[in-house]
Specification:
Oligomer: single chain
Helix content: 40-55%
Number of helices: 21
Number of strands: 18
Number of domains: 3
Distance between the termini: 49 Å
Shape: globular
Strand order of the largest sheet: 4-3-6-7
């Protein structure tokens, strides 16, 4: 057994000591020992080290299996027993996969005429599903754990990276068919293929959509995510940016470095700077999300391009179809489609990785292509092996999401325009958010066909058109107008370590809110939370909060500041636990650019204030001239530590 496995075993053993309360054990259906055995069984399928996988996940298995079986027991005692026995025999992941397959068969056959055929249902699900009083409950039971994302499933992560490499190879083939030479990326316009016809319409639509595009590189920002060469704090990104640019906005008024390297020199470029670092992170029980971390220098300028795309969409009136910050329109259209069948939802497999450079450079306006080409990665590295990038870009880049969104919107609008011209009918407006596309149900077949002609792969298991009243878009699922998404297991991975424990407790509290309608599950999760954090408070059910929900809330009472001696009850305030963040002060040692971290942040804030002016928390504050208060400088210099602390309400 490796030292890492031993260390993880000690951590989970301490956690088990906390949650092994006799009341919790009596309430449980699956014991801790059984959860460990189930996790080890699954580990042989998804991890190279089953023992380490089991030690990292068995507490998560303990929570997942018990909350699932609590819901099953409320429906059917026998159905619960048979599901429990199947999990013990086969493991949890195979059962989740089988339930997901049954659910997919179910929703695909949920026809408008309600003429469904019986599907192949495993024996252990027969009693449970037959006892469900409506289809919503049946789908809840089948899909409760479909977002289950175990930690340390390295075989799943490796398979997802292979899928990325496969997408890159497919883009390479598309690029070879469509253009001559690396620099131009201009496909052969003499082609008379059906895709050429649609490309012309898509290009015209994008030209109108992005009319007036003009990049202002001084509007770049740094995101809160991790860069390839820097962690999350802003100061670290500024330090890396200063390796290539000695001043913010290329103005000597805002120096952040004493010396820089050259990113571009003639036709050559720094190979390390223009290489994206690929890694996979857990997404679900069957696949991982592959992202490519970009360098802070390039991300700054790509953020400026993203913001200019957003301004064009708003200025040209396309925010009615695409809002890069809101999924609400997609979700509303999916809801309407599930009620009367007028809208269809389309989902694509590996959409962002399937946008080839030849397609993007062919349909996007040339001014945008010229700007973005300077900052796109030329290679990506997988396990220290560098590969040429033939994709436009990958998840992790600031321009990937807006560019794929505008391309998919242009496809939907082009099909709608052509169909209206040919038939004389008026079709419903589309909505797009990333690779989640909602179109008029009458255009479903044509849109999917055009997408496939352009090199995209339609995910048929998650695309729903004529013949079913089930709709899914942007994480929301509806059947006949009923919302199904609210009670699923969270997609986030539970990392059982001392550092991440406060966050995990918050995730369990959020799950307790979802399952509040199942008495045993909500009681079980509340006991788990209080065993891990004995001070935990609670609100009345339905309150927006991060602590627990209970019919009789628990909290402390303190008097408002300055009224400690006042006996009036109106001076009392409820005090609840809340997730907070604390920061340590950074080192005063200078960075590689010659400045210390706090000086970099101070220069950034100063230059941003001079460029944009003050910011306000709301319209009232703007009217009164009360600007927002800046956080202390050191908050942007180091990663914060999450903890539970009291907050007065």
């Amino acid at each position: 057994m490796s030292s890492k496995t031993v260390g993880q075993k000690l951590v989970t053993a301490k956690i088990w000591d906390k949650i092994s309360d006799p009341i919790i054990q009596e309430l449980s259906i699956v014991s801790g020992e059984s959860a460990l055995s189930i996790a080890k069984c699954d580990g042989h399928q998804v991890a190279t080290d089953p023992n380490e996988y089991a030690q990292r996940n068995w507490v998560t298995y303990y929570l997942a299996t018990n909350t699932w079986l609590f819901q099953a027991r409320e429906i059917s005692e026998r159905g619960c027993l048979e599901l429990h026995e199947a999990i013990l025999q086969k493991g949890l992941l195979p059962i989740i996969a089988e339930c997901d397959r049954v659910a997919n068969d179910f929703v695909k056959s949920y026809a408008l005429d309600d003429n469904r055929q019986d599907k192949d249902i495993p024996p252990y699900l027969v009693y449970l599903l037959s006892a469900c009083d409506d289809d919503r409950v049946a789908l809840q039971m089948l899909r409760y754990l479909k977002r289950f994302s175990p930690d340390g499933a390295d075989l799943i992560l490796a398979e997802s990276v292979k899928s990325l490499i496969s997408c890159n190879s497919r883009c390479k083939d598309n690029n070879r068919k469509g253009f001559h030479g690396w620099a131009s990326y201009r496909p052969n316009r003499s082609s008379s293929s059906p895709s050429r016809y649609w490309i012309e319409h898509i290009r015209d639509t994008l030209a109108e959509m992005l009319d007036g595009y003009h990049l202002d590189s001084t509007r770049g920002i740094f995101s809160t995510g991790v860069a390839a060469d820097a962690p999350r704090p802003l100061a670290e990104k500024l330090s890396q940016y200063g390796m290539w640019e000695c001043c913010l906005y290329k103005s000597p008024l805002y120096p952040i470095s004493h010396g820089t390297r050259i990113a571009w020199e003639g036709e050559s470029f720094s190979s390390s700077l223009f290489c994206a670092k690929v890694q996979a992170v857990p997404k679900s029980f069957k696949s991982a999300r592959v992202i490519a971390e970009e360098h802070a220098y390039r991300q700054y300028y790509m953020q400026a391009i993203r913001m200019e795309i957003e301004r064009c969409l708003k200025r040209n009136g396309y925010q009615d179809y695409l809002d890069l910050h809101s999924q609400v329109r997609n979700q509303e259209y999916a809801d309407i489609g599930s009620r009367i069948g007028c809208y269809a939802t389309i989902d694509l497999s590996s959409a962002s990785d399937s946008v080839s450079r030849s397609l993007a450079y062919e349909v996007l306006p040339q001014c945008l292509v010229s700007d973005v080409d300077m900052y796109l990665p030329r290679t990506f590295s997988v396990e220290r092996v560098s590969r040429t990038m033939h994709m436009f870009c990958t998840s992790g880049s600031a321009v990937t999401f807006p560019v794929e969104s505008v391309i998919f919107l242009a496809i939907a609008l082009a099909v709608r325009e052509v169909a209206s011209a040919l038939t004389g009918e008026v079709f419903l407006p589309p909505a797009v958010f990333g690779d989640d596309i909602v179109v008029d149900v009458m255009l479903f077949d044509t849109v999917t066909e055009v997408l496939e002609q352009l090199g995209f792969v339609v995910n048929t298991t998650k695309s729903f058109g004529p013949g079913t009243l089930y709709r899914e878009s942007c994480g929301s699922e509806y059947i006949c107008g009923y919302d199904l998404k609210s009670r699923y297991w969270p997609r986030t991975t539970f990392v059982w370590s001392r550092k991440h424990l406060p966050t995990v407790i918050g995730q369990i509290c959020a799950l307790q809110h979802k399952l509040y309608g199942t008495f045993a599950a909500r009681k079980f999760l509340a006991l788990i939370v209080r065993s891990l954090e004995p001070r935990m408070t609670s609100h009345i059910a339905g309150t927006e909060c991060v602590d627990l929900w209970e019919s009789i809330p628990r909290f402390k009472v303190r008097r408002a500041p300055g009224l400690e001696s006042c006996e009036d009850p109106r001076a009392e305030r409820e005090v609840h636990l809340n997730l907070k963040t604390r920061y340590r002060y950074p080192s005063v040692e200078p960075t590689a650019t010659g400045y210390n971290l706090m000086s970099l942040v101070e220069m950034w804030r100063y230059s941003t204030f001079l460029r944009l002016g003050p910011t306000f928390d709301g319209e009232l504050e703007r009217l009164l001239g009360v600007s927002s208060k800046n956080s202390p400088l050191h908050h942007d210099c180091v990663d914060g530590e999450t903890f539970w602390g009291y907050t007065a309400e």
